Amino acid sequence: MNIELTLIGKPGCHLCEDAEAAIDRVLATFLAANPSVSVSIAQQNVLDDAELAARYSEEIPVLLINGKVHNYWRIDEERFIGALNDLVAAAAE
User: Parallel, antiparallel, or unpaired for β 2-9 and 62-65?
Assistant: First the structure.
């Protein structure tokens, strides 16, 4: 199973830096418990993409899980790991 994460933000954004740290913490725990799952992480900069800027500039950082908005502004780590675990459970059904 592969999970695709996308973090939309911009350089110099302290909330974006906090989001990166939260993602790293959650993934360390999640991947240790789910070694057969792979997670890819892409970062997108709203300054480089006018469409992203128009859509998300007031909400950054924005975390997408498999292309769907999961969180913006701050990453709720419990909710995030819960969403990852739900994906694994759904794939096992």
Answer: antiparallel
Q: Give dist(CA 69, CA 49) in Å, integer.
A: 17
Q: Does domain 2-92 have CATH number 3.40.30.10?
A: yes
Sign, CA dihedral 70-73-78-79, equals negative
The encoded tokens of residue 81 equal 């790991």
Q: Per residue in 46-83, pLDDT tens? A: 999 999 999 998 999 999 999 999 999 999 999 999 99
Predicted model pTM: 0.93
Helices of type H across 1-93: 14-33, 50-56, 77-92
Sheet holding 62-65, edge to edge: 38-45, 2-9, 62-65, 68-72
Kindly report the length of the chain.
93
